[in-house]
Amino acid sequence: MNIKFLTYMSVGTLLLCSSCAHTSRTKVEIAVDLPENYASGSVAGSVSTNLWWLSFEDNKLDTLIEEALGENFGLQQARYRLEQANAVARKAGAAQIPQLSLQGNAARAKSHIQTLAGIDLQESNQFGLNLAASYELDLWGRVSASKRAATIDAQTARDNLETAAISLTAQLADAWYRLAAFNERLELLQAQIKNSKNQVILLEMRFNTGQATSLDVWQQREQLAALRTLKPRLEASIITVSHQLALLLGRTPNDNKDLKPETLAKLPPLPKTGLPADLIENRPDVRAALNRVRAADERVAVAVADRLPALRLTASAGYSNTDSAELFDDLLWNIAGNIFAPVLDGGRRKAEADRAESAMKEQLAACGTILLTAMREVEDALVNESKQNETIERQQEQHEAARQTLKYAHFRYKRGLTEYLPVMNALNREQTLARIMVDTRQQRLSYRIQLQRALGSSWKNSENYETGERRENND
User: Fold this and answer.
1) Which of 8-12, 402-406, 415-419, 465-469 has the highest mean pLDDT?
2) Number of folded domains in the chain?
3) CATH number for 429
4) Beta strands 310-321; 332-340: pairing state
5) Which of 76, 404, 443, 456 could in theory staple to 282 by disulfide, Cβ–Cβ 3.0 to 4.6 A?
6) Domain membership of residue 360 as a residue range
7) How far, in Å, CA of 348 to CA of 142, rounded?
8) pLDDT tens digits, 266-300
9) CA atoms within 13 Å, Cβ hemisphere of 403
């Protein structure tokens, strides 16, 4: 009767405890109301899964990105972090398997033995061979929740690797076209310097014949000197951006002789942007944020289960004898089960469960911020590119007007209808606008790169990246 009573009490206790266990959520819902579509400027349709940089049709850029995906040290760090996370997940899963250990021992001892004849020295041997097993019954899912949390952490590390790769390709493409813009500006500046130098020579000739004043000559010389002051800073920018590209490629700063883009790429058609809800699947940083919520939720289950009783089983079997020849004559074994239930711990386990719950809610709030930021980045890139197109159109109109102004200023000056100052002012405006337009076109390419990065476009089909990943894993 007492045995039945104890059995019923044990079952009742287990059922009561199981009702207190935490149930992990299978799906994370973010408290963010996403709009059905992006603002004006977006293109309907699913986001392309192709490697986005191929749309620029720049073979040199394609080659550099393939190199960077295989050689960039930051990306290699992300790969190693993924390997560590996978190892931790395997380690967490080992707790679900019974642990088995084998122990062998041999000892020889000399001791004093009290006999009737007095104290005698006696030597003894002891040999043993023991196999022990232990296993914890996962009554409340603590062990399985720990394994799931570690597995989700590994998925997060994979998403972080993808985020790093997308960021790397965007940084490299942006730096590549900034270098192209600097080179184009330098060529334009050198042409302007040459033109202004010829203008100085022409004015000096006119001064010698009495057709120009010394003021005209000095004004043009000042304009030429001002242009020359722009060249050193521009050359420094070219060198520093080359150093940045070399770093992204995993090279030394001076290993940049082949980093010479020919020209700015033509802007490809606007890519399909999909829907704001697609960011949850297409953006690896958003996926990583969701996974962090799921992992934190699993750790809530671990903390709650840690407050409940734990049942552990142990078993051992082995041999022990004073004579090695007779070691296997007698088999000794032992089977035991023990239950551990926390009774009084000063509220430590309860506090840990509360902390885990708050940590999960923190990750959920952070996930909402990351998703909203992702959507804002897409919207910003779309509106920036749209307005940049308008800016380029207005600048082209302004540049054409400046060219016509320069043309008629020359016309009036040659006929003695005006002084040289209007000519120099018109020349300055025309040359300045020509240089600014190069930067404006480069900035438009930068906005397109930002859009591709914000959409979370695919990069995983990169052959060199996959090769680099296999090389790192094999090492």
Assistant:
1) 402-406
2) 1
3) 1.20.1600.10
4) antiparallel
5) 456
6) 21-99+141-318+348-474
7) 17
8) 999 988 888 888 898 889 999 999 999 999 999 99
9) 7
